[in-house]
Amino acid sequence: MPHFDLPLDELRAYKPALTALDDFDAFWEKTLAEARDHDLDARFQPVDTPLTAVDVFDVTYAGFGGHPVKGWLILPAGTTEPIPAVVEYIGYGGGRGLPHTHLRWAAAGFAHFVMDTRGQGSGGSVGETPDPVGSGPAVPGFMTRGIQDPHDYYYRRVYTDAVRAVDAARSHPLIDASRVAVAGGSQGGGITIAVAGLVPDLKAAASDVPFLCHFGRAATLTERHPYREIALYLKAHIGEDERVFRTLSYFDGMNFAARATAPGLFSAALEDLTCPPSTVFAAHNHWAGTERSMEVYAFNDHEGGGPFQQAVQLRWIPGHLRG
């Protein structure tokens, strides 16, 4: 696949107008306040595994609407004093998976909190968190569930779960609540950006080839799913464009990036048809945090830098958590 988006020099300067409406901040303040009316009820059940270098806990906590959300907490074996933590969010369709697939951060000496994604977990990695909320007409997938109104939209629940995951991680006695980073790739990268815009005191945010950014461009630039779900919905629901993109404006990574305060690490792949590079740069270029950086993979698709980007993270995140 040749490069299909803007040239790299134009990507580095690409900064489209934000789409946040006047009530964006009030919408999210009210949403999170309602979620925090529910007892967090974070429970950490030790899990007996063959893994000798880590201690594993099966996590349950209250997310959006007080609904139970699952996760893993993985600590270096024998941890007795509070240590910094990385909270991770999962890519589209996947769930928290199995503990032995999440060893990188514990091996580097950090607590690792992995959030399950409600209603997902049957595409690539298994999940255990249902989404008990229904929706109006929607295209198969998650992108158009509740898209008729921002209060009903699927990602309102997911982003709220993700903020509460930080709360749950910070509640554990072996996690240093003052030193928490968030990270994820694709959908997880988009969730990372949202959390960075909603939680003001994170130490770092690492977002790889992020999804859920610059919806208006993504829906018209790529034919690949999941963004294609939006176009298919509008193909059937003719005339609802304004309503749909109004809803999506409350969940656009660009708008959260403009509110982020932590240092941000991004990656983009110039042949990425799933999350086109201009949509990634749109969020990066609006990042309001204390610093921002971008790793570019010129000949890669949505796999991005893969293990090479993980190596970058393993140098960058500890520099902020230990600093």
Give me the secondary-structure topology.
Elements: H1 8-13, H2 24-36, E1 43-47, E2 54-62, E3 68-76, E4 83-89, H3 104-107, E5 111-115, H4 154-171, E6 175-185, H5 187-198, E7 204-208, H6 215-221, H7 228-236, H8 241-249, H9 253-257, E8 264-269, H10 277-286, E9 292-297, H11 307-321
Helix pairs in contact: 2-4, 4-5
Q: How would you explain this protein's 3D organization?
A:
This protein is of the alpha/beta class. 33% of the residues lie in helices and 20% in strands.
Largest sheet: 9 strands, mixed
Number of DSSP helices? Answer: 11
Quaternary structure of the protein: single chain
**Broad shape:** globular
Report the span from N to C terminus.
41 Å
Low-pLDDT parts are: none
User: What is the H/E string?
Assistant: HHEEEEHEHEHEHHHHEHEH
Q: Which class best fits the helix and strand makeup?
A: alpha/beta
Mean pLDDT: 97
Computed over alpha carbons, the radius of gyration is 18 Å
Percent of sequence in beta strands: 15-25%
Helix content: 25-40%
Strand order of the largest sheet: 1-2-3-5-4-6-7-8-9
Number of strands: 9
Q: What key phrases describe this protein's structure?
A:
323 residues, alpha/beta, 11 helices, 33% helix, globular
Give a short overview.
The protein has 323 residues and is α/β, with parallel strands linked by helices. The protein contains 11 helices and 9 strands. Helix 2 packs across helix 4 (154-171) and helix 4 (154-171) packs across helix 5 (187-198).
